[in-house]
Amino acid sequence: MATLTGQGTQDKKFKKFCEYMEYIKYYLENNTHRLGSDQRLKRAVVKATSSNQYRIDETGTLFYMAPNSGLWQRIITSDEEKQGILLNCHVAPSAGHSGINATTDKITQRYYWKGVKEEVKDYVSRCDACQRSQKIKTMAPKLVPTQVVESLYMVGMDLIGPLPETSDGYKYVLTLTDYFTKWVELYPLKQKSGACVAEKIESYIYRTNRTLKTRLGKLCNEKQNDWDCYLEAVAFSLRTQKKASTKFTPFYLMYNREPRLPIEMDVSHDEDIEINSISSLNVEEYQACLQSQVEMVHKKVLENVDGSEKAKGVWCKKENMRAE
Q: Where do the Integrase zinc-binding domain residues begin and end (predicted)?
């Protein structure tokens, strides 16, 4: 948890960052320095803007691209907006109270401000729902590598429950997970039947179910009997979280693009850029470009999953030895 001194230091750094961004924005808009700029500041502004790391769109919004990232991030210079982003990318049902790394990744894919990683770490560590949700230590499941080569090649199925009965009479959750993209579908059920239960629970489904229970628990009321109201939001949070094994979000692997988060629905910058970049292509060229991109991503996913399986095998062996 951040100390008062640490928080004060963060606030000062953010204020200084905001002031510097105002000078950057003014220079990009007017091609001249803001009144009151000293020589040192002028040199810094010229150097920053000449590196093509900053740009302003037609609405006057400032963006930043980190070196070698290829990703434009909207610069945040308002504490109110910053708090709104933290709230929507962690606490909101569609964010699902994901961990520090997942929350940081979701934010930095879209936004930038000075000290964002430290602030996310502090924010998540102070989240009351996350603090009350204790992790249960269990034996690591035995890994059985499953070879999948494309989306929907193999889908895992499992049933969670019985859970506290909701006002609509639901007591179970049917989970379906695509092994390649990690795309998740969640369905509330009033009764369980053999048709809804998988005979064997693979490690992928095990992790999805564990995460699902944890996130529902953080969002539900004290009686835990309104979980069916949050299923779709939690499913969205699972689909839009980058997976350690694939290094991509399930949403991207399923639709070949990143999702628009609820907080982004009033902003169209990224979509405009994407549309403009392909507007010169005809249908055949676009199809070929898209197919090439899909093949490249799928190849990368298979490489990432292979490396992840090997790393998890080593980790599970160590954890089980420690538990014994």
A: 80-134
